[in-house]
């Protein structure tokens, strides 16, 4: 039997896990308004596969892009918490930044996103978690000229 999960609701960043089946996602917002810790603990305790998405926006859906050191601290502290509650590579993953083109709007947005991946990836791997990178709409990816190919070539994560 295959168990398929579908996220429902307007946002998974609220204080309840929005999940069907055995998978749930929660988002870490830069103003810490999402209650992601509670959602994460609920998922691990109830054997739901957890996808945690550190974002660069706040609870008001506004860009709030941290400094490099602020981003690294957010990633490290989040991974440390996830490890402490029992997340491992078999029951969860970290997906770096949701809808990146929404938050990085300038001409260098692809380069800036690759930079944020490069800052986060070594930290996430240090905790031995699986790592993904943001939910990019297929249309936007095509319009931007093969966004994912650029990320794979320019983010140091593929070879590390």
Please provide a written account of the structure.
The protein is 39% helix and 13% strand. With 160 residues, the chain is α/β, with parallel strands linked by helices. The protein has a single domain, classed as Rossmann fold, CATH 3.40.50. A 4-stranded parallel β-sheet has the order 1-2-3-4. It is globular, with a radius of gyration of 15 Å. The chain starts with 22 loop residues before the first strand and ends in a 6-residue tail after the last helix. Mean pLDDT is 76; it is low at 1-17.
Total helical segments: 6
The mean pLDDT is: 76
Q: Could you say what the CATH architecture is? A: 3-Layer(aba) Sandwich
> What is the beta-strand fraction?
5-15%
In short:
With 160 residues, the chain is of the alpha/beta class. Helices cover 39% and strands 13% of the residues.
Per-chain topology:
Layout lengths: L22 E6 L7 H10 L3 E6 L13 H17 L7 E5 L3 H4 L5 H18 L3 E4 L4 H6 L3 H8 L6
Helix pairs in contact: 2-4, 4-6
Characteristic key phrases:
single chain; 160 residues; alpha/beta; Rossmann fold; 4-stranded parallel β-sheet; 6 helices; 39% helix; 13% strand; globular; disordered N terminus
């Amino acid at each position: 039997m295959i168990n398929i999960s579908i996220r429902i609701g307007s946002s998974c960043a609220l204080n309840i896990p929005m999940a069907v089946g055995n998978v749930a996602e929660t988002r870490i917002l830069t103003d810490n308004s999402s209650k992601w810790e509670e959602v994460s603990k609920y998922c691990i305790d109830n054997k739901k596969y957890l996808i945690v998405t550190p974002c660069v926006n706040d609870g008001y859906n506004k860009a709030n892009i941290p400094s490099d050191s602020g981003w690294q601290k957010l990633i490290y502290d989040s991974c440390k918490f996830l490890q402490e509650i029992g997340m491992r590579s078999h029951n969860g993953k970290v997906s770096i930044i949701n809808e990146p083109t929404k938050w990085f709007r300038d001409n260098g947005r692809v380069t800036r996103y690759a930079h944020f991946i490069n800052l986060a990836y070594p930290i996430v791997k240090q905790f031995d978690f699986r790592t993904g990178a943001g939910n990019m709409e297929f249309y936007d990816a095509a319009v931007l000229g093969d966004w994912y190919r650029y990320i794979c070539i320019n983010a140091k994560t593929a070879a590390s």
